[in-house]
Amino acid sequence: MHRRDIIKRLSLLPLAATAVPSMAEASAEQPAPKVTRDLFAELGVTKVINANVTMTFLSGSLMLPEVLEAINSTSHDFANMFDLQDKVGAKIAEMLKVEAAMVTSGAACAILLGTAASITGTDKEKIRQIPNLPGPRPEVIMQKSHRYLFDQAVTTTGAKIVEVEGPDEMEKAFSVQTVMALFFNAAEKHSIPHETFLSIAKKHQIPTFLDAAADVPPVENLFKFQQMGFDLVTFSGGKMIRGPQSAGLLFGRKDLIEAAKLNHSPHEAPIGRPMKVNKEEMFGMYAALKSYLERDHKKEWNDWLDRAKHIAGILATVPTVKTEIVVDPGPANAFPSLMVDWDRQRVKTTPQEAFKALQEGTPSIVTGGHGQRLMIGVVLLRPDQIDIVAQRVKQVLQHAM
């Protein structure tokens, strides 16, 4: 599971064993384009069907045709990268109704740049010296329950993380070294809720940063947290927004975004230089966000439910198999998936064994697991893959009888 897939799943719809028409025909999304050169085969790389959630090790999500068009149409000309970052950022800020925005190389880069901006501001000497600033280390406040692998992006800047539990500890944690307070939105527990966290930080006049990398859908989350008052917010570009996998969004206060830009490429020697974003990714991220905001999200949600029902109908022909649509309560990966269970006495395999068989089979299919059930993710499947996944899972289960 992806590190953000940590929330308990919520039951939504028990399913009847009813089949629906071919999903490849029912979906408006186009199947994979025909190509004349198969680079997967040329390099010996196995193609994988992602019947799970957006995970970086599985290359995130698949870019939409309009994103690929944006990348291809801009790849034949040069551009001034300072100008492009400013212009793309201004358009993204307009779409998100914020002061300023920029494209980063993923949400982890945004965390690093946001921390660096909070440390250096526009001070050229600090930008040159970071992460080796003289004197005591800068400090970033986090709830103890919010510590996670990706907070290494904070300490990469030279900052120290100060852990707190509850409002009282947070109040006492501020010092002259405090530069930022970081809130991991998908953490399972919040000993300090959003509003209290913001109130305490604002009282001490310290910038607040919200990591919401995987927290769309719903689309409203793109606006919700900056409206709460967070100074900086990040979302991944290559998850359900379906932009380039190596792109992300950082948006919020104009002064902090400008400072983040100074700590980033195309400037030649700041801490963010190794995390450059090419022009095609900037155009692609702009196109992806525009497409996401204009999408019919209700229709998309219903399409996901139809996919799950369709697969469930096919699996219902296997004796003892039971299915259930569940929705992760979020905030990360809050979309429908299909849970599959069966009588181990009749179908003599475990979810873990089924997972392995699917992954090692042809085609290779990566599903998920949740306790003693097999999880089939439907939101990342191409239309032509829906029946393939359903039939392969059915075959694996029937083979174990």
Short description:
With 401 residues, the chain is an alpha/beta fold.
Structural overview:
By secondary structure, this protein is an alpha/beta fold. It has a 7-stranded mixed sheet with strand order 3-9-8-7-6-4-5, sandwiched between helices. A 5-stranded antiparallel sheet has the order 1-10-11-14-13. Strands 2-12 form a two-stranded parallel sheet. Helices cover 39% and strands 17% of the residues. The radius of gyration is 23 Å and the shape is globular.
What labels would you give this structure?
single chain, 401 residues, alpha/beta, Aspartate Aminotransferase, domain 1, Aspartate Aminotransferase, domain 2, seven-stranded mixed β-sheet, five-stranded antiparallel β-sheet, 14 strands, globular
Looking at the overall shape, the CATH architecture of the largest domain is 3-Layer(aba) Sandwich
Weakly predicted, low-confidence segments: 1-21
| Spatial extent as radius of gyration | 23 Å
Which structural class do you get from the secondary structure elements? alpha/beta
SSE string: EHHEHHEHHEHEHEHEHEEHHHEEHEEEH
Assembly classification: single chain
Largest sheet: 7 strands, mixed
Count up the domains: 2
